[in-house]
Design goal:
With 146 residues, the chain is of the alpha+beta class. Helix content is 53%, strand content 14%. The chain has a four-stranded antiparallel beta sheet, with helices on both faces. A hairpin with a 7-residue loop joins strand 1 and strand 2 (74-79). The protein starts with a helix and ends with a strand. The relative contact order is 0.13. The model has no long low-confidence stretch (mean pLDDT 87).
């Protein structure tokens, strides 16, 4: 039940809390109803955060090119919401071949069949997700890697 709730496929826990809150409010037990309201709000916030994590894991895999200082453009290789490498934009055929091989090495790794994210990657994943939600036009600078 908990897993279904966190992956967004079951609202059961929210419904239970909401029913309890409304029942207590109707019975004029406002302090207890407020306690359930607070639990409900925390659970909704937790679910929203897991939704952002899922979005990042499922959708943030690409090359992201950013204009650098004095023409030193940078390329970020982002896979499953985490920056796997940061490189200078290639300027020669040799550099492009090297980057192509590097990109293939990073993006050809097989994903585990689970959506679990290592704990040490969660903050970066949320930060990147927040960045692209706040600045959606930055997605124009990305290139999907197949």
């Amino acid at each position: 039940l908990a897993r279904a709730f966190l992956d967004g496929s079951d609202d059961g826990p929210l419904k239970v809390l909401r029913v309890q809150m409304e029942r207590l409010s109707a019975e004029m037990e406002f302090e207890r109803a407020a306690h359930y309201r607070d639990k409900l709000q925390r659970l909704e916030a937790l679910r929203a955060q897991f939704g952002r994590l899922r979005f990042a894991v499922e959708n943030l895999s690409f090359m992201y090119t950013v204009p650098g200082h004095e023409g030193e453009d940078r390329v970020y290789l982002i896979r499953r919401g985490v920056v796997r490498a940061e490189l200078g934009k290639p300027r020669s055929s040799k550099d492009r071949r090297g980057m192509k091989q590097f990109v293939e090495d990073i993006f050809s790794q097989s994903d585990k069949p689970t959506a679990q994210v290592p704990t040490h990657e969660i903050d970066e994943l949320l930060l990147l997700s927040s960045w692209f939600r706040r600045f959606p036009r930055e997605m124009k600078r990305t290139k999907q890697v197949s």
